[in-house]
Specification:
With 725 residues, the protein is α+β, with helices and mostly antiparallel strands. The strands form seven sheets. It has a nine-stranded mixed sheet with strand order 25-28-26-27-31-32-30-33-34. Strands 2, 3, 4, 5 and 6 form a five-stranded antiparallel sheet that branches. Strands 11, 12, 13, 14 and 15 form a five-stranded antiparallel sheet that branches. Strand 4 (205-212) and strand 5 form a beta hairpin. The relative contact order is 0.07.
Length: 725
């Protein structure tokens, strides 16, 4: 019996040992299979898919070569912080691949840390052979970093907005065009998957998207005969507005077609330009039906892709004409756009004057000298260290759209909107004839394309890293507004010290919440001022929460534009100093911090304005009202903003949408009167919103406050009587 038990135990042990071995072999095989899959996908450039398998490999966290490979995949999928961590960890493990410094330089470059990027590029350059294939590229990158250091000091021309989904996707999205005949209807190109045709990599199609009540609805793939199994790229719309001009391309042919409205059988007209060899298909711009600008790599050019123009005469397209050396350079010029009056040319170029990749430039046609002016870089944030192209300005001169593969994009190429501070010239009317066509043979001035030497730059952009706040329970805190002259200096040394103090306070007091209230001294367009003031407040918030220890939901944002100054606007020497600012308001309860807020201004009282003081008095009161006129994910433009001088913009923490409001009232009768006035002025569905201690109160929470604030009964009764307020 004893022997039998021992035999059974031995059999059980053998079974367990066999299972353990089987598990080990299975796990080992799975690890090898995951690594094999990761390598295959990585070599194909499918970095997002490669990451899935790399993360399944257990030894990736302790292997320098695997960390380096994962870092590249993370960089290529726009995860810069994680890529930087992997590269640094790989180096600490003794993996001293010289390509590490190249990628670290790329990350610093894309994050706008141009000084550090240039140093990393120079270090990499010193390690590679003289005939290394990347040598010229890296030298060019160093020059671009030097140029970016200077451009970073320029005042931004516009606010940049990524509209997000559903316009942008994880794929290529570009070529945004507004329908001239259908209000709130737009077209763009994308290679996102669809359920109609099984797509392969690089297969682009044309989509249409609608905007309803300031909200973008899901875009729709345009059906046959516009889209087919071939590649389709939309390039323009004809003058009548009833025809889409697009390129259809397959392995055998490339056609430029125009699809007229109502054509359901694919009888599109073919546009036969005089020459198409070397044309960049995404860089065709039809100024009108008889004139086209395009980018092409052709013999006799100035290097790379050049810009050309062709026009139709007697129903025949003339041979392309190079726009000349004032526009074209030894590098690439792409994506031309001509202003309506035919005098201002916008295009993309990767010349040395760019800050990285393709940048957007502007050149004006000079009548007296009959040539194009030296191109000017549109600066940051319109341009980025990535490729920025396809720039076109809308009819009103206030909004432009373009595409970019900058590293904060959702996909590989995203559509962006630029909202200008001031109306851009040249869009008021269409010229009958463009002024430069008759003077092509009279160019006498060549462009100076000497690269910028970074050693001659006097001012360097230094990356200031905020120290990790230390928590001191007994410490008192002194805060003050963050004053700025432009969005570039809102993170100045002085303001960073205030931000560090504020971060420490938020970490010390977990129940405390704050509101950042942005104000601007600009006296330009109301819509821009409001949007700019909250965008700068967003920049400060990002700095506070970047260490990921402060919950973003504890920081609310409000923008006031120039509606509530502290200094009278006609007191220019003080208005510039004190009216552009970010005020800090403590809104959370239950904290025990000793907080002093110093916003006193030491100037003569005759220069002071009481508007902001009145605003804070009403906001800080227990009950107040505003009127919401729009809730959108972008800059809102409506006449109500120009009819009232007490508009504001808030960001909804839950959705990220911007709520535009009119007025600030401490009694219900007054706000109701204003609401009715807005309705008479044509504002659709204005909504009265109550606030208690500056916090918006939802309808569900009203019952908790109505006994404490009896005037809420009037608000609630009126709401019931009409079904909505």
């Amino acid at each position: 019996m004893k022997i039998l038990i021992q035999i059974e135990r031995f059999s059980t042990f053998r079974a367990l040992l066999f299972c353990s071995c089987l598990l080990f072999v299975s796990t080992s095989y799975c690890q090898k299979d995951a690594l094999k899959q990761a390598n295959e996908l990585f070599n194909k450039g499918q970095y997002k898919e490669s990451l899935i398998y790399l993360n399944r490999v257990e030894k990736v966290e302790s292997s320098g070569p695997l960390l380096f490979k994962r870092g590249i995949a993370l960089y290529e999928t726009n995860e810069l912080d994680q890529a930087y961590r992997d590269f640094n960890t790989a180096f600490q493990y003794g993996y001293h691949n010289k390509e590490l410094e190249f990628y670290l330089g790329q990350i610093k470059h894309h994050k706008g840390e141009f000084t550090q990027a240039a140093e990393l590029y120079k270090s990499y350059l010193s390690q590679i052979d003289f005939n290394h294939p990347k040598r010229l590229q890296v030298r060019h990158l160093i020059k671009q970093c030097g140029n970016a250091m200077l451009i970073a000091y320029q005042e931004p021309l516009a606010i940049i907005e990524n509209p997000g989904k559903p316009i942008n996707s994880a794929y290529d999205d570009f070529g945004w065009l507004e329908s001239p005949n259908n209000i709130n209807s737009y077209y763009f190109n994308t290679n996102r998957p669809n359920t109609v045709i099984s797509m392969t990599t690089g297969h682009h199609e044309i989509y249409e998207i609608q905007q309803e009540a300031n909200i973008w609805v899901k875009p729709k793939r345009m059906s046959y005969p516009i889209n087919s199994r071939d590649e389709e790229i939309l390039t323009g719309i004809n003058q009548a507005g009833d025809g889409l001009i697009f390129i259809r391309e397959n392995e055998k042919s490339t056609q430029l077609l125009i699809h007229k409205k109502g054509d359901t059988k694919g009888k599109q007209e073919q546009i036969k330009l005089a020459a198409s060899f070397g044309v960049d298909n995404s860089s065709l711009y039809f100024y009108h039906d008889d004139l086209v600008l395009f980018s092409a790599r052709r013999a006799g050019g100035y290097g790379g892709f050049d810009l050309y123009v062709s026009y139709k005469e007697n129903n025949e397209w003339k041979s392309p004409i190079n726009l000349g050396p004032s526009v074209n350079s030894p590098k690439d010029e792409k994506s031309p756009f001509l202003s309506h009056d035919g005098q201002i040319l916008y295009f993309s170029s990767n010349r040395s004057e760019s800050i990285g990749g393709l940048d957007i430039f502007r050149s004006e046609y000079l009548y007296e000298s009959e040539h194009w002016s030296s191109p000017v870089n549109l600066g940051i944030p319109i341009n980025s260290p990535g490729d920025d192209l396809g720039f076109q300005i809308g009819d009103d001169g206030l909004i432009a759209h373009f595409s970019s593969n900058r590293k904060n994009a959702i996909g590989s190429l995203d559509i962006y909107f630029a909202r200008f501070k001031e109306k851009q010239p040249g869009q008021e009317y269409y010229a009958g004839t463009v002024p430069f066509l008759d003077t092509f043979n009279e160019y006498a001035i060549t462009e100076n394309t000497q690269p910028i030497d970074t050693s001659t730059i006097q001012e360097q952009v230094e990356m200031i890293v905020a120290e990790e706040p230390t928590i001191d329970k007994d410490k008192s805190y002194t805060l003050s507004p963050l004053y700025y002259t432009s969005s570039n200096d809102v993170l100045s040394d002085k303001n960073r010290s205030i931000i560090t103090e504020l971060s420490t306070l938020l970490l010390d007091q977990p129940n405390l919440k704050i509101e950042l209230i942005g104000s601007s001294n600009d006296d330009g367009i109301v819509e821009y001022n409001l949007f700019s003031s909250i965008k700068i407040a967003e920049k400060v918030k990002s700095e506070i929460v970047k260490n990921k220890r402060v919950d973003p939901d504890r920081i609310s944002l409000t923008g006031l534009g120039n509606n509530y100054p502290k200094v009278k606007n006609d007191a220019e020497k003080y208005a510039d100093q004190y009216n552009s600012r970010i005020d800090i308001r403590i809104v959370g309860l239950g904290h025990n911090a000793d907080i002093a807020y110093n916003d006193a201004i030491d100037i003569e009282s005759i220069y002071l304005d009481t508007k902001y003081e009145l605003y804070r008095t009403i906001v800080d009161s227990e009950l107040s009202y505003k009127i919401e006129i729009a809730k959108v994910n972008q800059m809102y433009r409506g006449m109500a903003l120009n009819l009232f001088n007490d508009s504001a913009i808030e960001q909804d923490l839950a959705t990220g949408l911007y709520s535009y409001t009119i007025g600030l009232y401490d009694n219900y009768a007054e706000v109701l009167k204003t609401k009715r006035s807005l309705e008479q002025d044509g504002v659709v569905n204005p909504i009265i919103v109550p606030y208690i201690n500056g916090k918006r109160v939802s309808k569900d929470d009203l019952v908790y406050y109505v006994n404490e604030y009896p005037s809420l009964k009037d608000y609630m009764n009126y709401d019931k009587s009409i079904g909505t307020n």
